[in-house]
Amino acid sequence: MSDRVYYVLFLCTHNSARSVIAECIINRLGIGKFKGYSAGSEPRGSIHPYALDLLRKQNYPVEDLRSKSWDEFAAPGAPELDFVFTVCDQAAQEVCPIWTGQPMTAHWGLPDPSAAEGTEAEKRFAFADTFRMLYQRIGIFVNLPIASLDRLALQKRLEEIGTTSTDISNEVA
User: Fold this and answer.
1) Helix, strand counts (H, E) of the chain
2) Fewer CB near the last or first residue (10 Å), C or N of the chain?
3) Domain boundaries, the chain
4) Angle at 25 between CA 35 and CA 117, to 5 degrees
């Protein structure tokens, strides 16, 4: 087993909900094997309060979370990324910066929970559902036998994770 840590960036336009939730999840599920980050093309400047509340209730540390630009990860001295995942449709259609190290990329689009309408309970459910879907996808990802897959096979698996139904808990490599 390799001691190598893989660096993963989750992108979303505003970096206020989905990408931040994904960052927290991978840092817990992939501890010791993955280090996660999040960023946005047009960062909102703050994390959505429902996302923060949900993460706190799940005992995730939120003190150091911040909404930031993806430019930070294309700048000199930034971590050399191994994987970059877009988690919203807008970021998937944008022209991303050039990442050093040629990371593998995939689109794992999810509905924007901050766009949910209805009662407060319905809005909070949208955040919980986003958390659940990201948790399932990231759970599959961190359990992939990355070191034993060639680049083409790994790329195929990354894309499959992003296109599977929301009930993907049985699809571990």
Assistant:
1) 5, 4
2) N
3) 6-163
4) 135
